[in-house]
Amino acid sequence: FPEFAAAHSNLASVLQQQGKLNEALMHYKEAIRQVSVILQCGIPTSFVDVCNVVLLILEELLCQPLHFAV
User: Fold this and answer.
1) Residue 24, Cβ neighbours under 10 Å: how many?
2) Are 49 and 41 in contact (CB under 8 A)?
3) Is the pLDDT higher at 11 or at 69?
4) Whole-angstrom Cα distance, residue 65 to residue 68?
5) In this predicted model, what pLDDT tens digit does every residue of 48-68 receive, in sequence order?
6) Do 29 and 22 touch, CB atoms closer than 8 A?
7) pLDDT at position 70, please?
8) In contact, 48 and 35? CB cutoff 8 Å
9) Is 33 helix (H, G, I), strand (E, B) or coil?
10) How far, CA to CA in Å, does 68 sit from each of 18, 33, 40, 55?
11) Ramachandran sector of residue 63 (left: φ over 0; alpha: ψ -120 to 50; beta: rest)
12) 3-state SS class at 63
């Protein structure tokens, strides 16, 4: 479910801000894994929800806001 990926991404962001980079990376990886599972299993979810999670992860990793237009 997209909210699990978003939760891992949010936790990773907090850990990154605290300087706990190894822990943050572990949660970013899990968020990406969750998104992958959602896409591979065909779990009914909004494509926009999945894209938003991916954008959150990328924004944190790149330290700049990204915009997604549907």
Assistant:
1) 21
2) no
3) 11
4) 10
5) 676 777 777 777 777 755 554
6) no
7) 45
8) no
9) helix
10) 27, 21, 22, 8
11) left
12) coil
